[in-house]
Design brief:
By secondary structure, this protein is an alpha/beta fold. It folds into two domains: 110 residues, NAD(P)-binding Rossmann-like Domain (Rossmann fold, 3-Layer(aba) Sandwich); 174 residues, Dihydrodipicolinate Reductase, domain 2 (2-Layer Sandwich). It has twelve helices and 13 strands. The longest helix has 19 residues. Pfam families: GFO_IDH_MocA, GFO_IDH_MocA_C3. Belongs to the Gfo/Idh/MocA family. GO terms for molecular function: nucleotide binding; oxidoreductase activity.
């Protein structure tokens, strides 16, 4: 199977290395910067295509979209028109209309579109989901989600990221939906900015820290917090508290936290540095699942519409933050039929 990777940046390089190491897969790398694609291909044992367009015209069996977010909708549409199954890093697009247009293209072509929410493939999240679905926690009354980056991203990234809710917390929104099988009906979000990077975020119209109260359709309360300024390290955790038990995802020897208790565990000698390290096995598992889906051996584990549902929550959070009020989350619309 020949799989093209469009985008040779940080996440594209990671995906290319994983695919190049999979049995029965030939990886072809393309980027608007051909020299960068060629260097990546040489490094991971793949082949470099002369351009992204050449991936679609060069006999690929599937495509992995890891280019800049602004290019996602057009690349999804290009893959659909070529009849190619596509894996796309989140988000489908930065707004709802763009997301709907891209989903419409894939639906009209009948092609597979898998979205990159890698937490669905993390061992801890999967174990917690199984425990919750098996009733081991009893009635779950509270969920707490934490996502903390160790340092702010570059200004150029912030300007096109869509903001903390759409870029970062959207992973938590998807994970909550996937774990519980419930929908978010209402949000109340606040944001804050301060410290040495305050001007960076203000210029981007963003915040460096946010807190959200989510209400699920069964009344379960969820708190989700995120920050770009967690100097202790990269931290992703989720607590699920029920009447019978409480489970924690992401609590291990590398969790970047120091216990204040005299008998508590010592601080980690090597805390998680970033998302690629923390979720490396999950990234591999999601691409293995994509290959299996392309081969017809398994269903699509994360259809593109899941991205729309999580984006609607993020959009409601942004409105809530700006207007300082609770906001209802609308039902995900069905993509309109593609025009003839």
């Amino acid at each position: 199977m020949r799989i093209g990777v469009v985008g040779a940046g940080r996440i594209g390089a990671h995906h290319a290395a994983v695919l190049a190491a999979l049995g029965g897969v030939e990886c072809v790398v393309a980027d608007a910067d051909h020299d960068r694609a060629a260097a990546l291909a040489a490094r991971v044992g793949a082949r470099a295509a002369p351009s992204p367009e050449a991936v679609f015209d060069g006999g690929a069996d599937a495509v992995v979209i890891a280019a800049a977010t602004a290019a996602h909708p057009a690349l999804i549409a290009r893959a659909a028109r070529a009849g190619l199954p596509a894996f796309c890093e989140k988000p489908v697009a930065l707004d709802v209309p763009g997301t709907l247009r891209a989903l419409r293209e894939a639906d009209a072509a009948g092609t597979l579109l898998q979205l990159g929410f890698q937490r669905r493939f993390d061992a801890g999240f999967r174990a917690a989901r199984a425990a919750l679905r098996a009733g081991r926690l009893g009635r779950v009354h509270t969920i707490r989600a934490v996502t903390s980056d160790p340092a702010p991203p570059p200004a150029a990234f912030l300007a096109q990221s869509g903001g903390l809710f759409r870029d970062c917390l959207v992973h938590d929104f998807d994970a909550v939906r996937w774990l519980t099988g419930r929908e978010v009906t209402e949000v109340y979000a606040r944001g804050a900015t301060g410290g040495a990077s305050a001007d960076l975020f203000r210029e981007a119209g963003d915040v460096d820290t946010a807190a959200v109260l989510l209400t699920l359709d069964d009344g379960t309360l969820v708190t989700a917090t995120a920050t770009r300024c967690n100097g202790a390290g990269y931290d992703v955790r989720m607590e699920l508290s029920g009447e019978l038990d409480q489970w924690v995802v992401g609590l291990d020897a590398r969790t970047p936290a120091t216990s204040a208790e005299p008998a508590g565990p010592p601080p980690p000698a090597r805390p998680w540095a970033g998302f690629l390290e923390r979720f490396a096995p999950a990234y591999r598992a999601e691409l293995e699942a994509f290959v299996a889906a392309v081969r017809g051996e398994a269903p699509n584990p994360c259809p593109g519409r899941e991205g729309l549902c999580a984006l609607l929550v993020a959009e409601a959070c942004e409105t809530s933050r700006r207007e300082n009020r609770p906001v209802r989350v609308g039902a995900a619309p069905s993509p309109a039929p593609a025009p003839d």
